[in-house]
Amino acid sequence: MFDVGNVLIRWDPVAAIAAGVGDEEARRFLAAEDFDFFAWNHEQDAGRTWSQAEQAAAASHPHWAAHARAYRANFDLAIADPVPGTADIVRTLHAAGVRLLALTNWSAELFARARSGHDVLALFDDIVVSGEERVAKPDAAIFEVLAERVGRPMDRCVYVDDSARNVAAGARAGLDAVVFTDADRLRADLRLRGLPV
User: What is the pTM of this model?
Assistant: First the structure.
């Protein structure tokens, strides 16, 4: 089981926001003390619509409204690049007949753009998208959804995520959870578990 953002696909919100308001303004927005972009974005990962999100940002922080809108408008730039090496690992596992699933924090409205831009996602047997389930990692409820979709004991599954908080949540759910740092380290971790990579 793989996380998607920053495990398979690099996520860089600066690139998307900068396309609308410029690089300096994008960085100022992401570092702002009066607006937490990452918490705001997490609400969309948990099911809030982008229309609702942008209206909320404009109402509470009108000076950041253009910055917030720029992110969705230019979203493809935020996910333009693969993480080096991990797609090769997924392809190797797929060729060996290993069942592959993904669990990602991603808005329901924008995940189709990831699918269309990164063909490695077509190799997964199933992808649990938090925005579709209306609950996001590290909430234990999303791991319950995953358990239902897996259809086998969680302790027989390896879960890979770049977020230590999400890895800890996965471990609490019974998964053999691994922190992702880079493809070489991941390959070594999977080989230790007897996987054919």
Answer: 0.95
